[in-house]
Design brief:
The chain has 256 residues and is an alpha/beta fold. The chain is built from six helices and nine strands. Helix 3 packs parallel to helix 4. It is globular, with a radius of gyration of 18 Å. The C terminus is likely disordered. Bound molecules: NADP nicotinamide-adenine-dinucleotide phosphate (NAP).
Length: 256
Amino acid sequence: MRHYFITGTSSGIGKAYAEYILENEADSVVTGISRREGMSHLRFNHIALDLGNRESLLNFQFKVNQNATEVVLVNNAGYIGDIKRIGNASDLEILKLVDINISAVLVLTNKFIQQVNSSLNRIVLNIGSGAANYPIDAWTPYCSSKAAIEHFTACVANEQQVTNGSLIIKNISPGVVNTEMQAEIRKSNHTDFSRHEHFVNLHENGELKLECTFKDGLKYGKTVKYYENGKLQVEIRRVEGRHVSHFYLTVFLQSI
Ligand SMILES: NC(=O)c1ccc[n+]([C@@H]2O[C@H](COP(=O)([O-])OP(=O)(O)OC[C@H]3O[C@@H](n4cnc5c(N)ncnc54)[C@H](OP(=O)(O)O)[C@@H]3O)[C@@H](O)[C@H]2O)c1
């Protein structure tokens, strides 16, 4: 059975992913990590943790279900921060974003490799963003953090290759999805953010994309199947469902 540790399960993509797993994988258990609880299920347990609080983060330990044969860490929690250009942004907001979007991902991945037995299948999925690959006005700390995680993913994958490690680590970009983060983006000020109207229009015209794209390269599309070592299938697809945004996005892993 699989044990998932997913950060940011109280809303948006993390919540939708956790719900999808619990509905579709009868044996899997999910540990959600966020400040708010946001969901409940017999096979779901919540750890209340502020990923921006260093002491709490350092005290976190992966307690893996003893029946697990595969353990998945999904570094999904993310923060858009202050939507203001560098020079106008708050120093404290920059530090908060770096703690949540970068430090927490590196520390959790480090702990995951230390604490989860290497005889189990171990998978780390980092939820990235297209913002890693091109500048977006007034999102500089966010863009920088996503670029950092993309490179971190490549560096850890390289370490695994060099050491013949079996850990699989991937960076996945979901595309623009209708979540609380998008609502935060629309709340920004158009004088601070030249693309404010674009994001408002995406929402008003029902154009927020619902599909994921695979940032690891290879393929883009509404439904993506990707096979690795003949073993891992990652499928990312669009689903209309009961989620508050009227749609939810699913990302799931399945052994083949
Ligand atoms: N939505 C998009 O268009 C889009 C596009 C590209 C990439 N992404 C990425 O997708 C991921 C999920 O975003 P989303 O759109 O689903 O956002 P969301 O609805 O705002 O959800 C963010 C999640 O992160 C958690 N989180 C934030 N700060 C935290 C903290 N200090 N400690 C613990 N948990 C924290 C929140 O939980 P609590 O508030 O309960 O702590 C919440 O569950 C992010 O990494 C984001 O960068 C989103």
